[in-house]
Amino acid sequence: MGNTAVVVGGGIGGLAAAIGLHRIGWEVTVLERTSTLEDTGAGISLAANGLRALDELGVGGAVRDAARGQYSGGTRTPRGRWLTRLDGSALEKAVGTPIMGIPRATLHRLLREALPAGSQVTGSEVATVGQADPGTVQVVHSTTALEADLVVAADGIGSGVRSRLFPAHPGPVHSSSTVLRGITEHAVDLRTDFELTWGRGAEFGHIAFLDGRAEWHAVLSLPAGTRFADPLAELRRRFHTWHDPIPALLDTTRPEAVLHHDVRELRTPLPSYTVGRIVLLGDAAHAMTPHLGQGACQALEDAVTLAAVLGTEPTVEEALARYDAERRPRSQAVAQAARQAGRMGQRLSHPVAVTLRNTAMRLTPSRVATRMILRHHAWYRRRCERHSPAADRAYACWSASAQEVGW
Ligand SMILES: Cc1cc2nc3c(=O)[nH]c(=O)nc-3n(C[C@H](O)[C@H](O)[C@H](O)COP(=O)(O)OP(=O)(O)OC[C@H]3O[C@@H](n4cnc5c(N)ncnc54)[C@H](O)[C@@H]3O)c2cc1C
User: Fold this and answer.
1) Is it the case that residue 27 has pLDDT exceeding 80?
2) 182 in ligand 1 pocket by Cβ < 6 Å?
3) Centre of ligand 1 from the C-alpha of residue 283, in Å
4) Separation CA 363–CA 360 (nearest Å)
5) Rounded CA gap, 170 and 264, in Å?
6) 76 contacts: CB under 8 Å, gap ≥ 6
7) pLDDT at 126
8) C-alpha span between 371 and 141 (Å, rounded)
9) Is 122 touching ligand 1 by the criterion CB < 6 Å?
């Protein structure tokens, strides 16, 4: 098996894939089209599966040290009534960790620092990727062509590699929602680590960071392309009657810190995550709506699985077949669950439906809610290592029990 790889895209998925490949002894080059390798998104929550994957990549400790455990919080109505309370300690007891909140820029920096110097090339847009001689792939970027044994397409939801490999696929679609996000300028006095508040056609949430600042997001049901002249003023207008600390979070954010994106997803599942020696990973393979906070966690699972199968299978072809067989059903099921969660959340606007949902949520015991969350957070931890019969046996055993519980 050859051992050179080119990763297209230096987002969370691409960097994680590069770390995994580097850990099993591959020579990796990450090509990123932007001139700086920085994720400018606001914050991110990492569930147990994402954190386990980061552990396997050797950066879990550093990420946990820089993140804040989301122990207290839950879902509320705009007037502040609690619909569910989630107990981070119960999650910790069940899967070893609460959900952790971290600024994206910090996570991105920690991933970049785990790669060898010179392996990341910025300002380098990949134009084409195609099979070269049997067993190699050619990547044309900027003015240069590179040959490698494997290409990892981690070029995000708008993946050019995906659209070239699957020209008949409809690509990403708008999810009828738009999201505005920001990070407070300084620490805020919060009584909970995280909250999600559902109104009719609108959602507001926050995640607290280790340094006392918080990330907030507002999701609105609006047509694609809707933009506001002054986004922060628009949010203050829409959310000023909502419960504390929502107005305070907006008041402690600078207008230029507000990001606004339409929420898109890959609604038509791909028939395969691999074509020849090209493998799709992260949002390029399974961009999902953010309603379960699982997009990056799934990209991290992809990255660890890819390294694990390349480290254990005898050929690249067999490894990629196994990657596809493991990752496609899992990530596509999570994407579908995220879409359904969106329908039950901010997108619900009929008053009767909202009342019914709220009543059902209030009556759901917290241990049942915790179990529903754990369904997506539970993930067998693959090992990024060269061939290991023990890991194979453990995987076979996990696979059988996962089927039993209906994953
Ligand atoms: C509002 C919101 C909140 C979210 N919250 C969470 C959360 O709490 N938890 C969670 O797990 N997930 C969350 N997600 C999902 C998560 O952000 C994504 O799933 C994840 O960032 C995808 O990473 P990626 O590396 O696959 O893609 P991206 O981050 O999109 O990275 C792709 C990279 O490829 C580069 N690129 C593209 N084309 C080329 C090219 N031709 N040549 C070179 N480079 C190229 C891009 O510049 C980019 O840097 C959220 C998403 C949204 C929208």
Assistant:
1) yes
2) no
3) 6
4) 5
5) 13
6) 82, 83, 195, 196, 197, 198, 243
7) 92
8) 46
9) no
Query: Model confidence at 8, in pLDDT bands (50, 70, 90)?
Result: very high
Strand-pairing partners, residue 197, are 76, 204
CA of 11 to the centre of ligand 1 (A): 6
Q: Is the distance from CB of 39 to CB of 47 less than 8 angstroms?
A: no
Least confident of 96-100, 190-194, 372-376, 382-386: 382-386
User: How far is ligand 1, taken at its centre, from the CA of residue 301, in Å?
Assistant: 14
In this structure, are residues 261 and 179 in contact, taking their beta carbons and an 8 Å threshold? yes
- Listed in sequence order, the residues at least 6 apart from 393 whose beta carbon sits closer than 8 Å to its beta carbon are none
What pLDDT does residue 360 have?
Answer: 87
From the CB of 218, is ligand 1 less than 6 Å away?
A: no
- What is the three-state SS of 161-193? HHHHHCCCCCCCEEEEEEEEEEECCCCCCCCCC
pLDDT of residue 345: 81
Look at residue 115 in the predicted model and tell me its pLDDT.
97
Segment 41-72, tens digit of pLDDT:
789 999 999 999 999 999 999 999 999 999 99
Tokens 């990024």 found at: 384
Ligand 1 atom closest to residue 15's alpha carbon, by position in its atom list: 25
A 10 A CB-CB count for 186 gives 8
Question: Token digits for 242?
Answer: 């909502």
Alpha-carbon distances, residue 347 vs 189, 196, 223 (angstroms):
29, 14, 12
Look up the pTM and report it: 0.92
Ligand 1 contact via 101 beta carbon (within 6 Å)? no
Strands (E), 34-183: 43-46, 68-69, 72-76, 82-87, 100-103, 120-121, 126-131, 137-141, 144-148, 150-153, 173-183
Q: What tokens does 360 get?
A: 């059902």
**What's phi and psi for 75, nearest 5 deg?**
-110, 140
Ligand 1 contact, 38 CB (< 6 A): no
Residue 125 CB less than 6 A away from ligand 1: yes
